[in-house]
Amino acid sequence: MQGWAGKILDIDLSDNSIETVPLDMEMARQFLGGRGLGARLLWDLVGPEVEPLSPENVLIFSTGPITASSSQTSNRFNVSTKSPLTDTILHSNSGGWWGMQFKRTGYDALIVRGKAETPVMIEITADGVQIKDAQHLWGKSVFETTEALGQDRNKRNVMCIGPAGENMVRIAAIMNDKERALARGGGGAVMGSKNLKAIVVEGSEKNRPEDQDQFKFMLYETRKLLKASPLTSQALPEFGTAVVMNVVNEIGALPTRNFQQSQFEGADKISGEAITDEILVKNQACWACPITCTRISKTSSGKEGEGPEFESAWAFGAQCGIDNLEAITEANFLCNDLGIDTISMGNTIGCAMELSECGYIESDLGFGQADKLLGLIHDTAYRQGIGDDLAEGSYRMAEKYNAPELSMTVKKLEMPAYDPRGMQGQGLVYATSNRGACHETGNMLGPEVLALPRLIDRFATQGKAGIVSVHQDSAAVIDSLVFCKFANMAVSVEFFARTLSAVTGETFTEEDLMQAGERIWTLERLYNLREGFTREDDTLPERLLNNPVQEGPSEGFTANLAPMIKEYYAFRAWDENGIPRPHKLRELGLDFAIEEAYD
Amino acid sequence: MHASENFRLIKFMKIKLFGGLRQKAGTAELNGSGGTVREVLQEISAENDGLSEALFVDGAEDLRPHIRIMVNGIDSELMAGLETAVSGDDQLAIFPPIAGG
After folding, report:
1. Contact B101 A232 (CB under 8 A)
2. In terms of pTM, does the model score above 0.95?
């Protein structure tokens, strides 16, 4: 294969059918792969009548044209489905080895439909594709399952769910390579609803770039750029992603105690610096990645594993008012083993702590209780006691106790580690993100805080719409090729276009890719509109819109969303209700969606 | 005249260091005596070659790329940059190149 493998594996667990269908190459050029291809396939396969946890929902695992090419960070892959947490379109991506290995089996994507009568697993090897009994694995943790199925880093890779997915916890993750996660939006619950425990891949095919000379040149140039940038060659390897904890806290944008404050007095104790000083064993890399940002940590009780990343350290830390790094780290490990999204878990626990302190829940739970974390996570995975509420995610839990305003979510997805009152553009990203509150779909940490590529006023609103839109579109490109966003800190989308051209032998320009990004973003938007979402859903929690920050550098600010939304719709050529105009859909080649968008 | 009136109380500025700058300085916190951001950086670099090298390109003129200096939580680039006036009431935070999220 050169770029795309040209094949999709289509499995229906209801009747055990296994089919190989050709990849529509025009679709591939338009939507690239990964997240874009997933969105395009999902548009046709899962309509508004489908309930996310029903057999009619599908899981689409997809790689991109550069996956497994050995281009730096070409290990990542995507899952698309309708989310049981948000009811929106869901895309989620992960690093590690599984994506590379799946591509080597000779497929661009795997569609899983239906529901097995009893627990099964899918195995894709040189012997073919098999649906195997997995009843003996049901109930086992992620680590147990991964080991039982023979994970072998470069040869055989395991993706699976843990008890949380089996119990259809709405914040359940799909885990790959033991501790990597397709984390957000409850994909693990969809996999559980299908009685699908694991997917194991062993591949032997190669993604051989068409233009070898140009590809080798791009490898060389990319290596130089990653090495020359202190961000990718020093900051991330030395301190990991959590090194931004202190800067986000310093500027007054670190959500604390369920977003009641925007600075955490214990931030330094849970920072990347603290991780390096106190618990780091070594750093580690995904396949074909020279950045090595992964942390391997060990607590004093002898527990060792991956993490915590910035978001996880924040979620169990500042969000819950906890500065005990070892407790946070072990909470991260347990989420990995039970298969739970750490951001949603920590955010939801923080919400429960506030519900309890405010008397909505009869409990002695409160902020700062590090000793409660492991029990709450365990009970969530098994839906026991209060864990059954937590398993529904922050919004449904808070709504049950008549306090939905205490849920820090957008479209029912728990917010990550940035307070929009201190980063106005990030608020627009959260409000307009197609999968709900998400920082990965256009993170403004770069321009609003780190001056990447240049600094803009984080409190300003005017002009943010254009910057956010460009970031959203480029993130969609990166998620579809699929590269790692950290590579983009040193390597431009124009470089990605040249690498894609070398791999496929076809010419792609930066403009081609950015238009593809806009096409993907817009189709995701149309999907949600078809589901019944409206401009009213492009919002933020009341607390952030109405309650000014009380102290610190962001004192006095609320999230001033309304003018940014208006500007954003105009920039994207959407009407005042946030519906993309027909001429824009035609310009993007989305003619097929016009009728349903305006239905 | 009371003896204490012969002395002016000098309030030192708190300077917080992050990331690899802590290893360079051997501490996470320093004191400075104010002036401009540039003067404070020169002051703390004067006796520490490692810190000087980490912060500046060629002496003390230009900051290295990606260094962020926050004055009371606001990026100094949004004020007067290295010429931003600071005093003992201010708090400086100095970040080396960092990335993540």
Report:
1. no
2. yes
The span from the CA of A226 to the CA of A230, in Å, is: 8
- If residue A499 lies in a helix (H) or strand (E), which one and from where to where? helix A493-504
Kindly report the backbone phi and psi dihedral angles of residue A110, in degrees, each rounded to the nearest multiple of 5, phi listed first: -125, 125
Domain spans, chain B: 11-95
Q: Which residues of chain A have a CB within 8 Å of the CB of B16?
A: 250
State whether A242 and B68 contact (CB < 8 Å): no
pLDDT band (50, 70, 90) for residue B4: low
Q: Do residues A270 and A242 lie in contact, with contact meaning Cβ atoms separated by under 8 Å?
A: yes
Cα→Cα distances A268→A196, A247, A248, A252, B93, Å? 41, 10, 11, 14, 13
Whether B2 shows a pLDDT value over 60: the answer reads no
The string of DSSP codes covering A391-409 is TTHHHHHHHHTT-GGG--E
Q: What is the DSSP string of A194-206?
A: TTEEEEEE-----
- Distance of residue A429 Cα from the nearest chain B Cα, in angstroms: 15
Cβ–Cβ gap A250/B65 under 8 Å: no
- Cα–Cα distance list, B77 to A114, A253, A444, A526, B69 (Å): 56, 18, 17, 40, 8
Q: How far is CA A479 from CA A111, A379, A442, A516, in A?
A: 18, 33, 11, 11
For residue A239, the chain B residue with the least C-alpha distance is B19
pLDDT, position B7: 62
Nearest to A443 among B16, B72, B101 (CB): B101
For the domain bounded by A7-201, which CATH number is listed?
A: 3.60.9.10
Cα–Cα dist A301/A402, whole Å = 40
DSSP string for residues in A458-488: TT--TTHHHHHHHHHHHHHHHHHHT--TTGG
Check whether B26 has a pLDDT greater than 50: yes
Could you read off the pLDDT of A423-456 as tens digits, one per residue?
999 999 999 999 999 999 999 999 999 999 999 9
- Strand intervals (E) in A223-378: 280-284, 294-298, 304-306
In chain A, positions 267-286, which contact chain B (CB-CB < 8 Å)?
268, 272-273
Contacts of B96 in chain A (CB under 8 A): 230, 234-235
Q: Is pLDDT of B1 > 50?
A: no
Higher pLDDT, B9 or A179: A179
The C-alpha atoms of residue A116 and residue A108 are separated, in whole angstroms, by 23
Q: Which of A232, A239, A270, A441 to mutate: most B Cβ within 10 Å?
A: A239
ipTM of the complex: 0.95
Give how far B91 is from chain A: nearest CA, Å. 10
How near does any CA of chain B get to the CA of A266, in Å?
Answer: 15
The segments of chain A whose pLDDT lies below 50 read none
CATH fold, domain A240-411, is 1.10.569
CATH 3.40.640.10 is the classification of domain B11-95? no
Which of A244, A251, A553 is facing B100, going by the closest CB pair? A244
Extract the tokens encoding A402: 């008549």
CB contact under 8 A, A250 and B28: no
The whole-number pLDDT of residue B61 equals 79
Measured distance CA(A171)–CA(A173) in Å, rounded = 7
Looking at residue B88, its amino acid is G
Collect all residues from B whose CB is shorter than 8 A from any CB in A. Answer: 16, 18-20, 22, 28, 64-66, 68, 70, 72-75, 77-78, 93, 95-101
User: Among the CATH numbers 2.60.40.10, 3.90.1150.10, 1.10.599.10, 1.20.1250.20, which is that of A424-489+509-597?
Assistant: 1.10.599.10
Q: So where are chain A's domains?
A: 7-201, 240-411, 424-489+509-597
List all residues 6 or more positions away from B27 whose beta carbon is below 8 Å from its beta carbon: B17
